[in-house]
Amino acid sequence: MLFYYLLPGKTMKKLFLLIAIAAIVTSCSQTSELTKSENDLEVFLEKIEKDNLSEGPVVSSAYWIGSNFITHDSQNIVADYSKRYTLKSLENSRIASSFNDLKTSDSNRRKLELLKSSFVMPPPFDENLASELSSISTKLEAMYGSGEYCYEDGSCYDLEAFEQIIDNSRNPEDLLMAWNGWHEIGKPMKPMYMRMVEIGNQGSRDLGYSGLDDLWFSKYDMPADEFLEETDSVWEEVKPLYDALHCHVRSKLNDYYGDEIVSLDGPLPVHLMGNMWGQSWSNIYDLVYPEASQTKSVNVTQIIEDRNINEIEMVEYAEDFFLSIGFEPLPDTFWKRSLFVKPQDRSVVCHASAWNLDPSNNDLRIKMCIEKNEEDFITIHHELGHIFYYQAYNHLPTLFQGGANDGFHEAFGDLLTLSITPDYLNRIGFISEDEAELAKNDSIGLLMKQALEGVVVIPWALMLDKWRAGVFTGEIGKDELNQAWWNMRESYQGIAPPSERSEQYFDPGAKYHIPGNTPYTRYYLARIMQYQFHESLCNEMGFVGPLHECSIYGDKVAGEKIISTMAMGQSSPWQDAFEKLTGSRNISGKSVMNYYKPLKDWLDTQNNNRICGWE
Ligand SMILES: [Zn+2]
């Protein structure tokens, strides 16, 4: 089984691609349903393990070559492998579903469920529908990937060009033009998207699920509706912090843009937030926290430059973090086979990613065109979180090699980045003790910077799949897709479109994960869980002080907790792994609130005479 995790730069959009390597299809799929026995199941699962071990590494190599040497031929090979193995894993999930009625061990049942839920948009048994689905999915992806909008003067903009404006401009007219322009691309997707959902629902039913919503949300080791309710109640805990941030940001934007553009009691106009989807507000940090310019914060980029630290050394610093808490060193092959520096002589996929190519030989790699700056220094720590997770669970059967749930992998990556504190930078010799003290003095600046990304994304990451769940079940009807999208964005995020959006538009289509069919709840879970992990580890190691000053660097007690949790992979319900690490079986927003407490207090003072909320 090949896993790789991508982290495409600044926007923190993350894409998770799972290619389940399936058994070579044999006649056993034709066996009558009635005769399925425990023995058939053992044979089936053994075959999958064997095939994953023998074929997995070769497929991984094909993908590695496809991303590291982009040529006509490498893409040909990848397309071929991809097609064949998609077919195989489809066959496998179907065989798995033929065991739906068999009583078997928890462990075998778990393996079957993992096989069945490996598809996000499962093709139905009907071959015509299956090929229609495949053609729609490919088209939707391509429409997004090649999306552009051309104006009457003949000038055309793609996403990158529009984002250049949205991320950096402070001219409301330019921002409006860019936001509207990009959102034109959704229009033609609507009928195709709805047809895709219809066929995907059929495919899910063919596997024994009640529909796509059941397939997507029942894999969290609890009934789908309970899970969705729980995600909402966790949000309620975090909402007061978000509301306070929203109120402060609105007031600052009103100061800057005036009442005409930003009202003091309504939702925030999405085009002004410094991000195409309003999912991160880091680009307007200087507007909402002008105090920052008066303090001297740590400049890691400058330190890397001054000390002439090269790309490999940056990775060594990150490895050292993991070794300091008790992890085993990375194998030689990691250093020999990874890509750290952008090659001069060929084109590669530069998005940062972490690869588990050959689990039984511990062949782990990252692929990244490292730039010598702070952002990449942090990203390397994140990517190594994935790598050490792989290393910890690679002793398990291949079907159990995965995160405890799909939020865990990202949560561990992000957990480490919370420990990159001024004290940590002091301990690795980047800054002096005095400089660390100075940096700690502006804790509001530090927390504000983090919140504009880490807190702002929470309601967005939640609402995206809530909308999708509504569309999957039909609760959101065909003629209210865009209306429902904006109603939910307003209710969860307090964000509104800058112009009238009728049903003629399909604004969800302007976000990659909708046409690209990438589930989003994992980012919500990760953003919540990383703070729970952080807080419980800091408590465990006896840290006293504000949580944002706690670094688990060098702490073997914290390390042991992480390693033993990681070693469980996805072999048991995620709540077991979660309990091992945190002592609790429930996700909760309390740790987010504890972590940001100083910021929340500061915001409350700022908001004292302001009217907050947007209803
Ligand atoms: Zn990641």
What is the element layout, followed by pairings?
Layout: E1 2-7, E2 15-19, H1 38-68, H2 72-97, H3 106-116, H4 127-145, E3 148-150, E4 156-158, H5 159-168, H6 172-182, H7 189-206, H8 212-217, H9 224-257, E5 268-269, H10 285-288, H11 300-306, H12 311-324, H13 332-337, E6 352-358, E7 363-367, H14 374-393, H15 408-418, H16 422-427, H17 433-441, H18 443-454, H19 457-473, H20 481-493, E8 495-496, H21 521-540, H22 556-566, H23 574-582, H24 590-595, H25 597-606
Parallel strand pairs: 5-8
Antiparallel strand pairs: 1-2, 1-6, 3-4, 6-7
The chain binds zinc ion.
Write out key terms for the chains shown.
binds zinc ion, globular, two-stranded antiparallel sheet, 4-stranded antiparallel β-sheet, 615 residues, 5% strand, mainly alpha, 8 strands
Description:
The protein has about 625 residues and is mainly alpha-helical. It has a domain of about 120 residues. The strands form 3 sheets. It has a 4-stranded antiparallel β-sheet, with helices on both faces. Strands 3-4 form a two-stranded antiparallel sheet. Helix 1 packs antiparallel against helix 2 and helix 9 crosses helix 25. The radius of gyration is 24 Å and the shape is globular. The structure holds zinc ion.
